[in-house]
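# nightly structure sweep
# worker-07 picked up a monomer target from the shared queue
# config: single-sequence mode, recycle default, output format = structure tokens
# input follows
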Amino acid sequence: MTTRRQFLQNLIAGTAALSNLSPLLLRAAESDEKLPPVRQLTKGPKFHWFGYYDKLQFDPTGRYILGMQVGFEGRSPKPDDELRIGMVDTGDNDKWIELGKTTAWGWQQGCMLQWIPGSATEVIWNDRDGDHYISRIMDIKSGKERTLPHAIYTLSPDGKTGIVPDFRRLNDMRPGYGYTGIADPNPKVLEPTDSGIWRVDLKSGEAKLLFSVADCAAFGTYPDDARGAKKWFNHLLFNQDGSRFVFLNRWRPTTETTKFRTRMITCSADGREMHLVGGAGLVSHFIWRDARHLLMWTKPDDHPPGFYLIRDRSDVFEQIGAGVMTVDGHCTYLPGFGDRWICNDTYPDKERLQHPYLFDVNTRTKIPLGHFSSPKEYTGEVRCDNHPRFSPDGTKVVIDSPHNSGRQMYLIDVSQIVKK
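# output follows
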């Protein structure tokens, strides 16, 4: 474990002398707070990151860490902007190994790059082929690659199935999550019948529309502000046994606002047995704790906003981390320790610092993992959230951060915290 002063000095090594630090960082360095060791995995001049927190970034051995590389920041991707796919070999001086490329990507979730569950050698990512999106599967050992005629979003735990929304519509409604290059064919249709969520067979590539936006709009209830609003889907995730998945059904009350509202819905793997989770309104980041429970940032009726553990297909919920986990973040459970450790982050605070941390469910203790500066230009679509991802044994966490030489990936060793 290092002190906070040592931590900050390590972060700026080779980039600036301590005497040149801002007053904010100098004040932070004077603290005797103990923080775990941090290692910068990627370096400039190119920029590197992984994206979302609910994908498998580490291979099963924990040696190889997937990432993406691009030569610019600060603007939306253009259709011909090429992203490089690669991985860091932590067993060979963090060597960058290039695997492929894509023109289907966004700043928040990249190209859905991830290891295929259950495979020690196969990775998958999305790409664009003319007027449609595809996905590529590569065996990193043999170098063999195959192409599926459909993009994917999240994968089932057995690695056989993917589910995916309409990235064309998603990009039209939420740039940074969808992909440029192919226009939404239903730009003025509020509830289309030919856009929705598909199920993709990773072996055959066959895709089936499980339900459309119109089908979903006919399910359950909406508040009045959903009338006349264009609706879309985002944030899909299978549960641990692959029997059900969750997704967010979103809409903007008016065309004059960028703010949106949300319904969270779970359903069976075949798109049936839909259940509306907690009504409509405020639902943000979430993760499955197990096959039956979701942890999420939300606001149940007559309760304050916070993280709540909700049992699927019921109205049973309990607040987690009340008074401790007080702001929204990208939450996940570390594997290997039951349900004890929640890994989370924060958006930049008033001093533009992001604070990844662990929360001990047993003791209700919050343990900081660092305090990372996010320059003011990293806002909106081009922001760089930490999005903490874990190693297979739960002893390491990787984040994205722009605090040193633009967005890069950093490895945080939490073994001395979680093994106590």
